[in-house]
Amino acid sequence: MKAYWYDNLAGDQRLAHDSGKEVTVEQLKKLGVYYHQIPNIDGVNKLASDRGYRNRDEIIVSPEKMGDVYEEKVKSFFHEHLHEDEEIRYVRDGHGFFDVRSADDEWVRIRVEKDDLIILPAGIYHRFTTDDSNYIKAMRLFKDEPKWTPLNRTSDLDVNPHREEYVQQYLQRRLPA
């Protein structure tokens, strides 16, 4: 895992967009984002049990697996959105980027790779893309039935109870740019 401030330069979303300004694991925690490197499934099973995740599935995001809908799907994942549940991903293979909003509404880019587990809290604005290898295999963990319901960012979404709770819990602490 590597986290840094997104450079905001135009170009392919799958490129690194690395500003050269690092963001630490401690800074991510202040945003409610938790990262763990877990080298085996036993560690994932323990975390799932400890946090009450009862269901899981695996997704492969690649042109080979998704065919003609790949580009459309990657673009939809990259629309800024939030979820009303935690988003938990354990990378089994490949690479990708999660971008999360800071307290100042700037993008923090998090590069994930094999054996990385990331937990995004409910209510955080974020987006996802593969890197330029166009491949990631990830396990998705869920507390209840598997579902992925993105709520795309609008001004109305700022009053969503999950967003309000996230803001109250995490964004009162500022992450300097």
TrEMBL record:
It comes from the Eukaryota. Its cofactor is Fe(2+); Ni(2+). Fe(2+) binds at residues 81, 83, 87, 126. SUPFAM superfamilies: RmlC-like cupins (SSF51182). Its EC number is 1.13.11.54, 1.13.11.53. One of its GO terms (molecular function) is iron ion binding. The keyword Transmembrane does not apply. Its main location: cytoplasm. One of its GO terms (biological process) is L-methionine salvage from methylthioadenosine. Pathway: Amino-acid biosynthesis; L-methionine biosynthesis via salvage pathway; L-methionine from S-methyl-5-thio-alpha-D-ribose 1-phosphate: step 5/6. Binds either 1 Fe or Ni cation per monomer. Iron-binding promotes an acireductone dioxygenase reaction producing 2-keto-4-methylthiobutyrate, while nickel-binding promotes an acireductone dioxygenase reaction producing 3-(methylsulfanyl)propanoate. One of its GO terms (cellular component) is nucleus. Keywords: Amino-acid biosynthesis, Cytoplasm, Dioxygenase, Iron, Metal-binding, Methionine biosynthesis, Nickel, Nucleus, Oxidoreductase. It holds the Pfam family ARD. It catalyses: 1,2-dihydroxy-5-(methylsulfanyl)pent-1-en-3-one + O2 = 4-methylsulfanyl-2-oxobutanoate + formate + 2 H(+); 1,2-dihydroxy-5-(methylsulfanyl)pent-1-en-3-one + O2 = 3-(methylsulfanyl)propanoate + CO + formate + 2 H(+). Ni(2+) binds at residues 81, 83, 87, 126. It is found in: Cytoplasm; Nucleus. The keyword Iron applies. Catalyzes 2 different reactions between oxygen and the acireductone 1,2-dihydroxy-3-keto-5-methylthiopentene (DHK-MTPene) depending upon the metal bound in the active site. Fe-containing acireductone dioxygenase (Fe-ARD) produces formate and 2-keto-4-methylthiobutyrate (KMTB), the alpha-ketoacid precursor of methionine in the methionine recycle pathway. Ni-containing acireductone dioxygenase (Ni-ARD) produces methylthiopropionate, carbon monoxide and formate, and does not lie on the methionine recycle pathway. Belongs to the acireductone dioxygenase (ARD) family. PANTHER family: ACIREDUCTONE DIOXYGENASE (PTHR23418). This is Acireductone dioxygenase. It comes from Colletotrichum kahawae.
